[in-house]
Amino acid sequence: MGPSDKITVVNLGATHSFVPSNPRVAVGWRERRDITVDLTDIFAARGISLRPEGGGIAFVAQPQIPPRNVNWSAQGKWVHAAKVGFERYFLHKVRTGKSETFYENMALDLLGIKKLKDMQFDTAQ
Fold first, then answer.
1. Residue 26: count of CB within 10 angstroms of its CB
2. Are residue 47 and residue 23 in the same domain, yes or no?
3. What CA–CA distance (Å, rounded) separates 54 from 65?
4. pLDDT band at 1 (very low <50, low <70, confident <90, very high)
């Protein structure tokens, strides 16, 4: 990263809780404040912008191959529902062994995103 690059973290609020400690809070071994940290000052000290959004944000960017001129983002409560739906869909694909479907390719085409450049192989050898 260069000095002009900026980092923005999108989080569901300005605090972070250490999730593995939740059972300890549930049984009374810890207090919620013991496993929660306020991210505002930590990120500000490092020059990182924090966006504590309540409904979630989705962001799609073309992979690491420059030029990255394709990106899309949206925010709102519907984004959380869409993320949950996508996670369930993805797990279904993993269970059934499907790698990609026609409607995934159509959605990527609408966004102008290509997975890999086309390659042609000479099989006349």
1. 9
2. yes
3. 32
4. low
Give the C-alpha distances (Å, rounded to integers) separating 29 from 6, 17, 19. Answer: 39, 15, 14
46 found inside a domain: yes
Task: Give domain status of residue 117, yes or no.
Answer: no
- The answer to which of 29-38, 44-53, 109-118 has the lowest mean pLDDT is 109-118
Residue 107 sits in which domain range?
60-112
Two tokens at 123?
């099989």
Give yes or no for a contact between 9 and 51, defined as CB atoms under 8 angstroms apart. Answer: yes
Across 82-118, b (16+ Cβ under 10 Å) vs e yields eeeeeeeeeeeeeeeeeeeeeeeeeebeeeebeeeee
